[in-house]
């Protein structure tokens, strides 16, 4: 790797990040780490001009990382021009990377992602070479008799992490380890405990009652798996997409590694991107204007910028994938996530709509139920140690449909936690939290989404009355978020049937329901 290119990329990275105001992106630590990894530039081989160029570029990058140089396009270009005025080709490369519209947020995000990926690759290659040198020193240049089994085991252990894009899975069978004879390893676990209990690490949803339904966690916990269950056409994909986008809309990223890019991923095996993007734009725009949206006569670039700016305003980056389920299995999902990690992303949430549609024929078990359970198991085993929250919609069984046809008026309450899962009753053994949905109408014909919670291993005992609620559908915009205003949910939408203790706290069944008619 040409050190000059790396330094130019670092300068460009810090400049372009400064153009995404309020994004939360900050690569100053990453650039300082890169500079520390470089050899002594004053003593590097080459001409005096080569060395002077490298030193000048390093000083510019370091001054930007330390905040001592203004992050203005013209100022940075002038400094680069003065520093490397004798190398026209290098200067042109730098100007090309530093040029572009400062209001094209999509292009800027692409540049940042590409540059960070290059820098991470360089640092990782340096780490790999260091490990190889240490192994060689222990084996080839040992001055005493070699303990061959020990040297071989150490070499395998050190290199195992490089067989994946990430560096944490040195032993695929081992997620974590603490040795009480090594207090430092125990302290590292408690440092992660602090991250886990830090309210800033919890990803709030846009619905107050939903957050309360999740108990003292009061939101989505990093690394947990949530399964969203409902009958066909009862809002599984809708709620999954809403939860996925709520993270970006209502949260500032809490990074476990400050040098990474906070990222949310949505995989779909059913809805194509056109459908999902249409629904996203329409829902948000309708909520904003409280009226219908004319997408046919709206500029596609304008719609794209609206969605991008809205979702990524708080610092998250979003990736949407439409998968061919016949050609995709759980390993493919893992590969996509690993690739993002290799490019410097820290994935906070991954939605898979639907996981059970993936190819699972290569999984053992011999029957569909066991293989689907293993599918959930494999995804959780991959995502949980990385702190990746997963949201997975899944259909509930025909037995539950029979219960519904019998006319029960508290459907989600009747099925919650009772293994009414289609094709695999034991999904609950793999997930952390079960969420149930059902679209229902009140006496006035207004539509509501009934939410219920089953198993939840994340929270202490949650009051029973908080585990079930109704969220209203608005005439425009679907399930409108209420996190920054008056709570819209109700404990009951009827005078009997679903009523639970404390129902009056959120209003009676007929109080204000007309506002949310569909």
What do these coordinates show?
It is a single chain. This protein has 518 residues and is of the alpha/beta class. Helix content is 43%, strand content 12%. The protein has 16 helices and nine strands. It has a nine-stranded mixed β-sheet with strand order 3-2-4-5-1-6-7-8-9, with helices on both faces. Helix 2 (28-37) runs antiparallel to helix 3 (48-66). The chain is globular. The model is unreliable at 165-171 and 496-518 (pLDDT under 50).
Keywords:
alpha/beta, globular, disordered C terminus, single chain, 518 residues
How would you summarize what this structure contains?
The chain has 518 residues and is an alpha/beta fold. The chain has helices spanning 3-19, 28-37, 48-66, 73-83, 88-98, 105-139, 148-160, 183-197, 208-213, 236-250, 273-289, 300-312, 330-342, 368-383, 398-405, 411-415, and strands spanning 225-230, 261-268, 317-322, 345-353, 389-395, 433-441, 447-456, 468-474, 478-479.
